[in-house]
Specification:
The complex is a heterodimer of chains A (349) and B (264). Chain A is α/β, with parallel strands linked by helices. Chain A has ten helices and 14 strands. The longest helix of chain A is centred in the N-terminal third of the chain and has 15 residues. In chain B, strands 1, 2, 3, 4, 5, 6, 7, 8, 9, 10, 11 and 12 form a twelve-stranded antiparallel β-sheet that branches. In chain B, a hairpin with a 4-residue loop joins strand 5 and strand 6. The two termini of chain B are 32 Å apart. Classes of the chains: A alpha/beta (349), B mainly beta (264).
Chain lengths: 349, 264
């Protein structure tokens, strides 16, 4: 009996060893139809805005699935999956054959298509912020384009502050943010230029937004996909809490937008939208209100999808962008001024 | 003669007590590991690869109990089993403590507590889903069978207090999203040690097993094999499975044995 217990114990140890594979789902197939089904299922189960975007994913997938043959080339198969991607009209949702190859096959949404440029960096530099022209401009050096933030006052009216964050995809420390707002504290109004800022870290965008209010603000809610079912959503109400800083900026602010204003920049926009002293000017923003998940299909193709959407305090779905409070068109033929900045100066004077 | 026999009997019976020993060891283990992973929430593709395993610990083996504390971990690289994109770096350090009561010369039973562990993965080429973690504190029922120079161990997870970074569709804990607690000013969401979004996982809601086989090669050297498997689902029908096999050599850099006398 004792020997039986001993051998039983040893047998349990040996049997259990090496068998976590038994607990795992079967290794997926990588033939054309399997890859198509995997992607269609991902979109159906995870994409957070099928209803808002008007996409009947079952109908769309079925109509494409019938055309999937086993002898499709990679490019042909990619293009068939890409039909689903582009139908989402969502800059956050993409399909890339090889992310490390810049010439790789790509499917996604061009959010600039159909919109004129709303920003020209040469006009901005040559007329407003060049160091030789305006000694009152400071920069935070570093980052992908050589600086992470630029701020100061403008020669056109040196009582008006100007702040440009070209990307939220940078590290800006709490001390650096505090320094920026300390320097801008005594201006009578602020132009917050968000143009060209395609997003990055929403937490950083929210941190900047928190400097523009002294009370908590109901900014809307984010609706997340929480399960595979059609109705598996959960809403997270989002309250913007004010910064603890004594250098909050509570005066008039004009936020400049163009079609490039996307993703985390939309986070900034909806965060400050309820604040009465803040208005947006320029061009319709790009949107991109959803939070993004990403991964690889079983054949290694990269996918990203918006798995949530933001609905602001006014009940607006923001993913396709929003019109500014004051629309201003940039005249590229007149390089002596930026009409959007000039209009903002007039607003703040 | 009867008196002499009686005294001899007393001596012999006490001898078994006198030779009972307490051994205290500070040890280091080093070896190799094979780790595997699958998160069905995002893909049925499995990952696997090799790495290094280490452990630094203290163990006391008395006539009545075995107890110890230590720090162990793995570091490795994994690759997917259906393509060659996006290799993964894995790191899994944890502090542990264990106490087992000897119920006879061969069997010991008790508990093993992984006090705090962080299982971390970094997938190359991904953005929001590039970083994945499970932070947990795990309590096991533990049993060891001793036979000569061999030890066979089995730990069965009873209760975990844990947080998984990703939910069904986003890199935030599932319970935080279901509770409507998401916002970008909520730093506890991203913090592996933000205990606010930890959940209890009792046995039945997850399978957490560990087996090990140790062989005392020389007085100060042991060799061992350990297998760990963890299987749970924050979202029903979308389980996460983590496997870990490690083969290590243990060196007892401090190894003191003293005899225990009656009354001690």
């Amino acid at each position: 009996m004792k020997s039986l217990k001993v051998f039983g114990f040893i047998a349990i140890v040996c049997i259990l060893s090496s068998c976590e594979k038994v607990l795992m789902d079967a290794k997926p197939e990588t033939d054309a139809l399997s890859i198509f089904d995997e992607y269609a299922t991902l979109v159906k189960e995870k994409y957070g805005m099928l209803e808002f975007k008007g996409v009947d994913i079952d109908f769309l997938a079925d109509s494409i699935r019938n055309t999937i043959q086993s002898d499709l080339s990679d490019e042909e198969l990619f293009n068939k999956l890409g039909i689903i991607t582009t139908r989402l009209r969502d800059g956050h949702s993409s399909l890339i054959q090889n992310r490390s190859d810049q010439n790789s096959l790509f499917a996604g949404f061009d959010l600039l298509e159909g919109f004129p440029p709303g920003f020209d960096i040469n006009i901005l530099v040559d007329n407003y912020i060049a160091a030789s022209l305006n000694p009152n401009i400071k920069v935070l050096e570093g980052g992908e384009i050589g600086f992470r933030a630029l701020w100061g006052t403008l020669n056109q009216d040196n009582e008006i502050g100007y702040l440009w964050i070209p990307s939220w995809n940078e590290e800006i420390s709490d001390d650096e943010i505090e320094q920026i707002f300390t320097d801008l504290k005594n201006t009578k109004g602020l132009i917050f230029d968000q143009r060209l800022n395609g997003g990055g870290d929403p937490s950083l965008a929210t941190k900047f937004a928190s400097y523009f209010t002294d009370k908590a603000i109901d900014t809307g809610f984010e609706r997340f996909k929480t399960g595979p079912g059609v109705n598996d959503f959960s809403d997270s109400p989002v309250i913007l809490q004010p910064a603890s800083s004594s250098n909050k900026y509570l005066k008039e602010v004009r936020v400049l937008t163009d079609r490039n204003v996307y993703s985390a920049s939309t986070t900034f926009l909806y965060s400050v939208d309820p604040i009465e002293t803040i208005k947006t000017m320029g061009q319709r923003s790009g949107g991109g209100s959803g939070s993004v998940a990403d991964g690889y299909l079983a054949n290694g193709w990269y996918w990203s999808l918006s798995t949530s959407e933001f609905i602001d305090a006014k009940g607006r779905h923001l993913d396709d962008g929003v019109e500014p409070d004051i629309a201003v068109v940039l005249d590229l033929d007149d390089t002596s001024k930026d009409e959007v900045i000039e209009a903002a100066i007039l607003e703040l004077q | 003669m009867k008196k002499l026999s009686f005294l001899l009997l007393i001596f012999l019976s006490s001898l078994t007590v006198i030779v009972a020993q307490t051994t205290k060891s500070f040890f280091v283990e080093f070896g190799g590991a094979y780790t595997s992973f699958q998160d069905v929430k995002y893909s049925a593709v499995g990952y696997g690869g090799i790495g290094v395993a280490f452990r630094l610990g203290f163990e006391s083996n008395t006539p009545t109990a075995i107890w110890g504390i230590g720090l162990d971990g793995n570091y490795g690289k994994e690759t997917p089993n259906t393509h060659n994109v996006g290799p993964v770096t894995t790191l899994h350090p944890k502090f542990y403590g264990r106490y087992l009561k000897k119920i006879n010369d061969q069997f010991s039973v008790g508990t093993h507590w992984d006090i705090l562990g962080l299982y971390f993965r970094d997938t190359e080429g991904l953005d929001n889903n590039g970083g994945y973690f499970i932070t947990s504190s795990d309590l096991f029922a533990a049993g060891v069978y001793h036979r000569g120079k061999w030890n066979f161990g089995l730990d069965l997870g009873l209760l975990s207090f844990q947080k998984e970074r990703t939910s069904f569709a986003f890199s935030a804990p599932q319970n935080a999203l279901e509770d409507g607690a998401f916002d970008y000013q909520n730093e506890a969401l991203e913090n592996p040690f933000g205990f606010k979004y930890f959940t209890f996982k009792p046995i039945g809601q997850q399978l957490y097993l560990r087996t090990n086989i140790q062989y005392q090669w020389k007085e100060r050297f042991w060799v061992g094999y350990e297998w760990t498997a963890r299987h749970f689902a924050e979202v029903k029908n979308y389980p996460v499975t983590v496997g870990n096999h490690r083969i290590v050599v243990r060196y007892n850099f401090i190894h003191k044995t003293k005899s225990t006398t009656p009354g001690n």
